[in-house]
Write a structure and sequence with these properties.
Distance between the termini: 26 Å
Strand content: 15-25%
Structural class: alpha/beta
Number of strands: 8
Largest sheet: 5 strands, mixed
Strand order of the largest sheet: 1-2-4-3-8
Helix content: 25-40%
């Protein structure tokens, strides 16, 4: 993100003086007297909008604008990654597994086969260390690639360590999305078990609640 000087105090809705995103898109800072304990960022007609409390000082505004623009950028990067071509065939999935093993496990996990299956309803993935086979549920197909990668790495790690013990989880420490993917899958399982509908992705960053130290 371009680290331009933080915008100064101004009337609501005025554009952020010269501030742009990493891609050069204009930034607009909106102050609101009704917004007291949250900050939000979203896209509106090609402009990155950051909504902040009206009481913010110039220093607080600069800090939170840059913080929220960074979150907005990371959100865009994740969505771009999720939109890349996924390994559709078993051959492509096996090749991707080899890539993940080389990158995160030093190439030590070498499966004999990796394939999509449609009869695996209770698990996202499974592995059989005795014969080196890995199976991924086809329910993963529409999910973000970083979630699929986590499940695939999880099963690759099982070829090295069968149990869910400390040695197993240490193998996954190098993958940066492990905790996030676990939370994602837990949320999907929770919603599915209760028949909750997916509201879909939004066009912005969830509002950030201000802790006392941030607000004062």
């Amino acid at each position: 993100m371009t680290r331009s000087p933080g915008p100064r105090n101004r009337r609501d809705g005025a554009p952020g003086a010269g501030l742009t995103t990493a891609d050069g898109a204009p930034v607009e800072v909106r102050r609101s007297a009704r917004r007291t304990r949250t900050v939000a960022a979203f896209w509106e007609n090609g402009t990155a909008v950051v909504a902040i409390p009206a009481r913010f000082t110039a220093a607080q505004e600069s800090e939170w604008v840059h913080r929220m623009l960074a979150k907005l950028q990371r959100q865009g990067e994740r969505r771009a990654a999720a939109g890349r071509k996924r390994p559709a065939s078993d051959a492509a999935l096996a090749a991707h597994a080899a890539h993940l093993s080389a990158h995160y496990l030093g190439g030590r996990a070498v499966p004999t086969s990796v394939r999509w299956v449609s009869n695996q309803n209770a698990r996202w993935g499974s592995a059989t260390p005795a014969d080196g086979t890995i199976r991924l549920s086809d329910k993963l197909r529409p999910m973000p690639q970083w979630v699929i990668d986590y499940v695939l790495l999880h099963e690759l790690a099982h070829l090295l360590v069968a149990a869910h013990n400390a040695a197993f989880w240490k193998l996954l420490e190098g993958y940066p999305e492990t905790q996030r993917a676990k939370a994602f899958l837990e949320g999907v399982s929770f919603a599915t078990a209760r028949g909750l509908a997916d509201n879909g992705g939004g066009g912005g960053v969830p509002e950030q609640e201000l802790w006392p130290d941030d607000a004062d």
